[in-house]
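S.,

Sequence below, as promised.
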Amino acid sequence: MVGRNYKQKGPRARSYHELNSLVCFLFILCPTAVISLTGLNNSPNVSKLNNRIQFGQNRDVTAVMRISIARRHLQLLNKSAVKSIQSLDGDIIDCVLREAQPAMDHPLLKHQKIQDPPTDLIPRKLEAARRFSSNTVMQLWRRNGNCPVGTVPIRRTSMEDLLRVWSPTSYGRKTNRPARMPRVGPTDVVESGNHEHAIAYVEGDRYYGAKAVLNVWDPRVEVPNEFSLSQLWVLGGSFNEDLNSIEAGWQVSPELYGDSRPRLFTYWTSDAYQDTGCYNLLCSGFVQTNNAIAIGASIAPLSTYGGNQYQIEIMVWKDPREGNWWMVFDQDIIVGYWPSSLFSHLSRHASMVEWGGEVVNSRPGGRHTSTQMGSGRFAEEGFGSASFFHSLQVVDAANNLQLVNEIQTLAENPNCYDIESLQDPIWGTTIYYGGPGRSLSCQ
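The prediction came back faster than expected:
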């Protein structure tokens, strides 16, 4: 169909203006979508779709509709940049004025002053002992420039990004509800659909934050609509429609980013992933304050089997003065915050914290996916082979970090992905987790 000449001969031939008029007529019943066939994005994907337009074919009209909706959504996502930086991995990072970032489109935040990082309130550090010398992880875009003070770096969303998903306006949102984690114990689990986890967790208290160090890998993802991630969750409410969740870590998601690079990411929801929340800065919500970290940008270098282990440190904690949830990266870089007003349960405190891995298993070809979790190795292989989290800590009501001494673990499908916890003499509470996905024992 690509490259078809739609200037046909005979009575079925239609001019460009007739086609435009027809599409506009079709949209009289849908006033929220405004179609314009002029000035479309010049990307290769859009050009191919333009070449497919032919009168009388619903799928081609739908393609035009999707492009128009995508163009409008791009205008909402991509804000005017003071400066733009071309990253070595192909991303474009826009340096956007803090006051113009997507978060400020939220009706609860439009007229609010952006909070200054509460550096004086960062929970007292319990230094994570290191089994090896510090191996620095950085974001590739920083090699080509920096964003000025007063701006925040935002990964630019492209037309190709939006056209990879079934609906452009759903880009950056989880379309499948993740697993319902245990509320009482490992056996109290509701069917998780196509999401599989290997996690450690604590519950039964009031938590005001969580922290951990995790190593970074590049797991293989079998098909584009699957992902593999490693993260911490800060949770409140039940696992029904009132779940509040704040999440941060690294992920590989070809559908979201168009490649297989591990990327720093965040996610939030206040209604169990139904209508609120999104990844990174792809909707209004998370308020970024830092000009050096781009959420959604790739990170490097990566851990290797039997070789160097590269790790990142992430903390999410609730500011006792204003009540907002702040994210800290790499020990002392305050990235930004989720305003307390976004949440119901988390406006007070969290009731559960989790650390671990998650994959999407779409069962390609009717079998379990071969998408890897973590390093793609099982937990029993340990340091240098399996993925890990170490120095697990939570923040208490006095705004102090406390070591986690007792945790529970859950692997929903241990033949595919598993988890082990231990008390390491150097790192304290540590978990190893992951797996290869499809194998003789994982079908």
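The mean pLDDT is 85.

Coffee later?
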